[in-house]
């Protein structure tokens, strides 16, 4: 008789060896047996896939160990639920974190393949819109790096964020097809499939002890199937899992209909199910408000919750210890319906009473808020939820009754306060407030910068904060220094290693050792040389893609982010117009040569944002072609901003534009990427800029404009923008030029509505901040002329930005919120 070995004893495969020779032979092996191609006919894409498969094997070795480790230790698991993961490419990240870059490069060289060429073919996984999705991707990498057993859960969109093309300066959206050549990183897990229901009705039956039991009988069901992508941490200490759900029908084809000749009707169910996970909603910071979006949110929430409970039950006898073994972080309110879903599963499926289920739920969930804009707070019409999720609606009412009773009876809240706390917004058509649901159903609610967290307490959640004063806390965002320094800026990384050794690679806060080098002229020159190389690379990209020549010795001024009125690309463009005017009026002055770069996508339905893109292109055409400018100013809008483009632009920036209307940017993470790579920031006291100033020192950042408090006051007073504009000659001339059609001779009225908005209400404080901004830009010019001082500040930015590593952010989440 053989004894059944315990799981801890079952063998793991022998880890792979990674010499260039072995890697080369494995690449040939994959090419032959997995892709079915002879070396002599292999296309670059085949080499890419074969190379990824070889790298993937090295990841799998560590993955199995990590997964088995949690099982054996009984450690707490963290689940990060996010409707978006803006990942970008994975190959360089994986190679670098496995420390295999040189070995793979040599292996490919021996096969006559250039690593850079095939790396450039990998599509960006763009399953997100902007900062919120990129944060989720940075967090996944940092959770693996700081050794937290974590799972990311999201949706495997067939089409990620649209590809942006320019047609005569207008944004055109094209479908994005990242899966066209397959996805060698993922594993389809047919066995990890769950049913997710929609619609139908709730039946009440008598349960044990004559207590009523509720049975949800959905009218419609789809299957959620998991696709797993391993996420490697730095030095492959740990590998975690990103699990993305794909929808498929229960019946792929309705054979009765098909046989009766209804060939289209036979596929209706199938099409409907698959359309659920077909596309990412391209709106950023504004709720899509459409039924399909709510279906997506519930679909991935329900599948994730079922998966989490199944994994728990494999290991533990029941759910009473769920909060000790599971933390679920909600990335914004998109997965907030999970709170009602966990309640439903605990009560209806696993037989819990309401109160103990509520206790478990609240202790398990925590919620990250990403925006204060009232129009951006998610809410759904009560009739829609009643129809799509009737049982969840009942649970929401029950949660609400409990919370309101507590507020009224124990805390003596007023009717007005009660109205703000309620899960149901009763002003107008009745709606379920997802932010309030997420708040009430969580033990921790965090903001993403110090300023944002304070404003959260004072504005959107002031009454809920009064009811639960110990729940709101701050976790300032961060970025992973692997992608945003080591991988995107190998030149700077090499220089830093030479100067201060390798410690900063393991701990970005060790970059402070660089501080004294800011005063070292020899070091500054090397730092400037690296910057120049990166600027040449960007200049080449611009020439290849757009046929525009830019001078790498000019000041590279960069604003890249989603196009949004609150981010104020318009302020930047108006300043460019004013500067253009000045350069032409004062040819005798020594203007600092400058290239203003823009990139970013606008939500397809956001009219003003699209008009701002067209304006940037119109202004660029006029300025770039005016000989009177003598090349001193260029404006370049690079199409199709994504993670890979950011990886080229960030290291090439001298000046980072972080100029949102104060109080409106929750944190920003683009600001951190630039500072880490030695750009100076011109910015408002908004989001994490405030903390960046504290870390890099006020003398090393250029701050301008109204503060958040001043913006609030200005809005309350209803100041007259017209007076402000008329008080500024530069501004009024620039606005008149744009409004009168100087940049749009083909359609002189194109920008009149945009400019009227500034004259009439100036909600985003473009006029109010213009003079302060223009003055700050001339300070930048003066600084640039003094190159030693400029580079002293640039070096100090790199030296002091280590705190903004997402490793630090994740450690704070782990310590204060997850207790993992
Ligand atoms: C970092 C990043 C963002 C966020 O930029 P912000 O300036 O913080 O808005 C958006 N998109 C991409 C592709 C990014 O890499």
TrEMBL record:
Q: Name one GO cellular component term.
A: cytoplasm
**What is one Gene Ontology biological process annotated in the Swiss-Prot or TrEMBL record?**
glycogen catabolic process
Main subcellular location: cytoplasm
UniProt keyword list: Allosteric enzyme, Carbohydrate metabolism, Cytoplasm, Glycosyltransferase, Pyridoxal phosphate, Transferase
Query: What name does the UniProt record give this protein?
Result: Alpha-1,4 glucan phosphorylase
Q: Which InterPro entries match?
A: Glycg_phsphrylas, Glyco_trans_35, Pyridoxal_P_attach_site
Origin organism is Allorhizobium borbori
Give this protein's Gene Ontology molecular function annotations: glycogen phosphorylase activity; pyridoxal phosphate binding
Q: What does this protein do?
A: Allosteric enzyme that catalyzes the rate-limiting step in glycogen catabolism, the phosphorolytic cleavage of glycogen to produce glucose-1-phosphate, and plays a central role in maintaining cellular and organismal glucose homeostasis.
The entry's family comment says: Belongs to the glycogen phosphorylase family.
Which cofactor(s) are needed, names only? Answer: pyridoxal 5'-phosphate
Catalytic activity, as annotated? [(1->4)-alpha-D-glucosyl](n) + phosphate = [(1->4)-alpha-D-glucosyl](n-1) + alpha-D-glucose 1-phosphate
Q: Which residues carry this modification: N6-(pyridoxal phosphate)lysine?
A: 673
Indicate where this protein resides in the cell. Cytoplasm
Q: What is its EC number?
A: 2.4.1.1
